[in-house]
Amino acid sequence: MKLIMENWRGFIKESTSGRKLDHYATLISREVVEALKHEDIKNTLQQSGEVNTRLDIEDILEELEWVRDVYINIKTGNAIDADASYDFPLDATDEQRRESDMTINITLPADYDETYFSALIPELKDALRHELEHSGQPTDTLMGVQEKIPGGDIWKSLETVEDYYTSEAEVAGHVTGLYKKAKTMREPMGEVIDDYLLRVHQTALSSGYSEGEINPLMSKIREYWRYYTMSRYPNAEIDLERS
């Protein structure tokens, strides 16, 4: 574990910019929720089962150098969920990174009302904070994941699973997102990490890997994430003695 800490020394930082990204995740999540309250969006979703729109939040985005626009895609479903993606030009220069966009995908029942938002908001803030972390990362850091997993097929092999979940870009992205979720839900960070990794474990099993194959890797990913948490957020509620 000492080696892990030494490898991360150059990019573990809870800086002013990091705290700003946390704040912007909250601001954008509020704008998304406000959009979901609009009757025209609710009516369109009930009629067609899908809504695609751009958020009019130029005042927020002017502070985010490498995020040009934020789009939301809303679909109907039985689940209440949110995920997001940060789309940037491959091998982009700093100037080209200004053309990068973020897309938020939301699933809600067609007849949703505001009572559903308490379940949606923690997932939304997690997704936003994760992708905002990527928006602040250097292009070569982001490209490191692209180069190891061309085509984005994370589950192609156990090696690609490990490359993805233990990469510099994704450890930071997942941990900052989950920390935002933990604070929103007022739950211990260690429990939030374990809940997320349980879902990853279930995906691994459904992808055809056995318990014997995936368990050692899941333990390794968990160790990386928990120690990164300890380094970046020393006050997080996480029981490292049991990890």
Element order, helices and strands?
A: HHHEHEEEHHHHHH
What average pLDDT do the residues reach? 91
Rg, Å, rounded: 18 Å
Instruction: Please state the structural category.
Output: alpha+beta
Number of helices: 10
Q: Give the percentage of residues in beta strands.
A: 5-15%
Helix fraction, binned, reads 55-70%
Largest sheet: 4 strands, mixed
Shape, principal axes of CA atoms: globular
Largest beta sheet: strand ordering: 1-2-4-3
Give an overview in words.
The protein has 243 residues and is an alpha+beta fold. It has one domain. The chain is 57% helix and 12% strand. The protein is built from 10 helices and 4 strands; from the N terminus they run H-H-H-E-H-E-E-E-H-H-H-H-H-H. Strands 1-2-4-3 form a 4-stranded mixed beta sheet. Helix 2 packs across helix 5 and helix 8 packs across helix 9. The longest helix is centred in the first third of the chain and has 22 residues. The radius of gyration is 18 Å and the shape is globular. It starts with a helix and ends in an 11-residue tail after the last helix. The relative contact order is 0.12.
